[in-house]
Amino acid sequence: MARNGFNNNLKVLAFDVFGTVVDWHGSVMREVSELNLNVEPAEFARRWRAGYAPAMARVASGELNWMKLDDLHEIILREVLEEFKIDSLSEAKIQHLNRCWHRLTPWPDSAEGLSLLKQDYIICTLSNGNIGLLTNMAKAGHLPWDCILSSEVFRHYKPHPQTYLGVARVFDVAPSEVMLVAAHNNDLAAARSCGLKTAYVERRFEFGVDQEKDVSPCEKNDVHAIDFIELANILTKSN
Amino acid sequence: MARNGFNNNLKVLAFDVFGTVVDWHGSVMREVSELNLNVEPAEFARRWRAGYAPAMARVASGELNWMKLDDLHEIILREVLEEFKIDSLSEAKIQHLNRCWHRLTPWPDSAEGLSLLKQDYIICTLSNGNIGLLTNMAKAGHLPWDCILSSEVFRHYKPHPQTYLGVARVFDVAPSEVMLVAAHNNDLAAARSCGLKTAYVERRFEFGVDQEKDVSPCEKNDVHAIDFIELANILTKSN
C-alpha cells in the first residue's frame, strides 16, 4: 500500500527502534531467562516495558528532571524487581541486566533492509533510547545508520513535536521530506501531525509469539509494509 | 611513538574532522576554482577557514546566540566575498558554495583507517561541524562512524570542556577511556586537560601543498601517527 507520489521529495527516513528495528521482547526475555529467576521471563519483559511510557510522562510533566533512558530503565527495573519480589541479584547483575537494552537483537530483515534503504535515503534513528545505547546496539547488530538521533539530542522524549521537527531541522529539510518508520500508530500519528510522512511496519510478534498484535493497515499512513525489505521495494518502485 | 599501557582501557576514539579526517583546504579550493571567480582559490579557502575560530569565539562569549556551523560559515562567507569584492554570485550559488563543507573529501587513508579502528573501538566524530554536515560528508566519503557527535549535540563549541566530557558521558565511560584524535595540538591540549587520552595525526599539507605545517611530535600526546593506518597499527599492537 503506497500513495502515488508521496515520496517525490523524500530525503530522510527516521526509524523508531524498540520493536520496529529490534526485538526487545525476545531479547529481554532471553537475558532474564539466563538469570534463572523465579519469574516468567516473557511477563517480566512486558512488565518492564510497560513502565516505559509512564516514566517518560513523568519527565515530560517536569516531575522528573531530564534523564537518559538508561536511567529511566533502571528506575523501572528496580520497581519490577520489587514487584516480583526478587532480591537475589547483585548490584553488578542489576547494572548488567539494565544494559540489556543496549544488546537487543535486530529483526532478521533489519540490517539488510536498512542497507538497501541507505542507498537512496539518509537513514537515522529517532528513538527515545539514549545515544550510547543506540550506538552499542548498532555496533553489535550491524545496523548501518548514517546518523544516530535520539531524544537525548533534542532533550525531549517522543511524542514531543521537537523530536520529529528536530530531524527536519538537523538535516535542513522540510518536515514533509522526512518519513518516520515505526511499528506503532501513536508514534506515526504524532509525526504526521508535525508534517512528516509515515510508514507503518508490521511487527506482529513484538510482544511475544503468544501475543500477536493487531497490524491492520491505517489509511492515514503513506506506506504499510511487512518488513524493511518490503519497505525498500515500495520506496524504490515508487521513486 | 606510543606510551606503554596508555590504551589498556581505551573504549572510544573521538575524531576531530576538519583537517584530521577530511582535506578542507583542497576541497574548498576545488569548488572555488570551478566558479571562475577573480580570486586565488587557495587564498580564498584559507581566508574562509581563518574566520572560523573568531566566529566561534563570538558564540562562546555570548555575543552571538548559539547557531550551527552552517550558519556561521555563511556569515563568514559573506564577509570574505565582500573582502574579495565578489558580487557576481547568485543567492543560490552562495548557498551551494556554503554547503561545500558538507562535501569535503576524506584524506586517502581515512575510510580504510577508520574501518580498521572500528573493529576494536567505538569510533565517533567530535567536531564543531553540525550533525547534518557531518552526516552528508560521511555518506559521500564512506566514513563508517559508529556515531556522529557534534557541538550541536552539546550546544557548545570545542574547546569547551562540555564537548570532550560529553563524549565520555554519552558512552558512560571515564574520560580516560576516550581518546581524541586530531591534527591540531590546541584541540588535543584541551581534551587532555579534561582527562582524555590524545593522538596527534600529522596532516602535513592541511593548509595546502605550498604551506607545509610543523608536525613535530609533542611529548604530551599519547600517540603520534602519520595517518589513520599507522594509528590503527599502533593501537592494535599495544592492545
Could you explain how this protein is built, in words?
2 copies of one chain form a homodimer. Chain A folds into 2 domains: 12-23 and 105-237, Rossmann fold; 24-103, Putative phosphatase, domain 2 (DNA polymerase, domain 1), CATH 1.10.150. Helix content of chain A is 45%, strand content 11%. Chain A has helices at 24-34, 41-50, 52-60, 69-83, 91-98, 110-118, 131-141, 151-154, 161-171, 185-193, 228-237; strands spanning 12-15, 122-127, 147-150, 178-182, 197-201, 223-225. A 6-stranded parallel sheet of chain A has the order 3-2-1-4-5-6, sandwiched between helices. In chain A, helix 6 (110-118) runs parallel beside helix 11 (228-237). The longest helix of chain A has 15 residues, at 69-83. Chain A is globular.
Briefly characterize the structure.
Two copies of one chain form a homodimer. Chain A is 45% helix and 11% strand.
